[in-house]
Sequence to fold (116 residues):
Amino acid sequence: QVQLVESGGGLVQSGGSLRLSCAASGRTFSVYAMRWFRQAPGQEREFVAHISRSGGDIYYADSVKGRFTISRDNAKNMLYLQMNSLKPEDTAVYYCYTHMGPAEYWGQGTQVTVSS
Fold:
């Protein structure tokens, strides 16, 4: 069992930056690969970024590649998403996610709004 709590969302102008955080509690954080997803109004939830347990394997959705950076601090049980050069189309609720076998865990989400 793991609990995930996101923070760091807010309102930012186009071209600005935000850093999202996801605090994990419960089982040892380092055993989980982690992902960020996002969901815009009226749209399906979509994948944003993935990081392996050690942080050595990272990949991104094409829409955020070169602008977003996922990272983790296993000593602090924290996952991060640094978002630069934000665009209005990045507006969404952002969720951290992990799974262990068939069990899936989601945070409650944090709202990111990018104004043009």
Notes: Residues 38 and 94 are 4 Å apart (CA to CA). The two ends are 40 Å apart (CA to CA). The mean pLDDT is 95. The chain has no helices and eleven strands.
